[in-house]
Design goal:
Blueprint: E1 3-11, E2 16-24, E3 33-41, E4 46-56, E5 62-70, E6 77-83, H1 86-102, E7 106-108
Antiparallel strand pairs: 1-2, 1-6, 3-4, 3-7, 4-5, 5-6
Amino acid sequence: MTHTAIVTAQRWTGRPLRGIRIRCETRSGPAPLQIRLEKFDHIDGRHRYCVLRLSQTLFGDWCVEQALGPIAAPGGQERRAYFNQHAEAMHLFETVRDRQVRRGFVPIPVQPGLL
C-alpha cells in the first residue's frame, strides 16, 4: 500500500513553516528510539539542543521527530516526517544524527524516567 504524507516544520508558536511530500511504501519495524544532542559554544554564548525521536504512530506508520532550538531561551522548531517503512525512517534518523554530530553537537545520555 502506498500513500503520500505531509511533513511540516513548525515553530513553538504553532505556525507552519513549510511542507514537503514524501512517498511511502510498506509498514514494519521494531522499537522506538530517542537521542538528545547538545552544542555549547562558550565564545559566542550559543547553547543549542536537538532531540531526535523515531516512533510508530497509532496507524502503523513511522514518525521521525526533530526538535531543536536554543537552551534556556525562547524559540525553536519541530519537524516531523512520516514513513510506512521502518528502514526509510531509520535512514533519515541516522542521516540527521550524523549531520548534527558533524556540526558539533554531542549526544547526551537521557534517562527516560526523568522526562
